[in-house]
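hey can u run this one w/ PBG bound, need the structure tokens asap thx
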Amino acid sequence: MVAENILTPADFILPLFVCEGRGKINAIESMPGVYRYSVDQLAPIVEEASSLGISAYAIFPQVDSADKTPDARESYNPDNLICRSIRAIRASHPEVGVICDAALDPFNSDGHDGLLVDGHVINDETVEILCRQSVVQAEAGCHVIAPSDMMDGRVGAIRRELDAAGFEGVRIMSYAAKYASAFYGPFRDAIGSSGALKGDKNSYQMDPANSDEALRETGQDIEEGADMVMVKPGLPYIDIVTRVKQTYGVPTFAYQVSGEYAMLKAAANNGWLDNDKVVLESLMAFKRAGADGILTYLAIEACRLLEARG
Ligand code: PBG
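ok here u go:
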């Protein structure tokens, strides 16, 4: 009765990695317990998760390297891996919500979220491609577009393009305060962008030293039409979650990223931490901080733990 916060399956968004092929469920070495699923294997995993109460899924593609180019044109191919995945989930589980990134890194042969020209990521040309990518994803049935690229002005541009294409109802969850973080390492392994990544993402992702800047970035995205905002990574930036929620009062999400998952699992698998306890404690921290929802690779596991606890 005196607990101020409570965790429920409705708090979780499950990130899912998808890959080409059939019948594939491939392990990701740096994320023990997380897999890449071929499109035909999505229905069973969504079935398992949704039976536990998880109602939203964020899909991330590991695109074949042959389809990665410097102009990232596969990102707006209406039949690309991400669009096929969206259609598969919408067909098998029409009741769940589907969220997809707008960013070029899965499709870009140099691993950047935007177009790399002469060693620089160029903003405005990237935004044009992000708009095309967002529209094909919406056409495939995506409910929420999540720009994770951190280009300037992309939320407003994507909003206008979605509206013009008749997708007024498709929402935007912006990665509003996304830091240039080493905690994304395992994710980049998972989508196969780490090997190729030239340089770092410091020219568009945020400096971990900054906090006021997170509010300016978030304010700008809200102004441009973001329906929901996200802070990323999660626990190392939990102070930002609280500041954003308290300042703007909009639906605020946190992404417990791949490196946070890897860190927790590495310690738990070594017997250094009590897995079940730290899973729930780490997630409760987000609720306490003010998050309305959490993107977490622990979602299924956490639902089972909550269920067992009754
Ligand atoms: C791509 C993107 C990244 C993540 C989500 N979308 C990685 C990056 O910016 O390099 C990271 C998620 C995670 O680490 O779990 N724009």
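The first strand starts at residue 12 and ends at 19. anyway lmk if its weird
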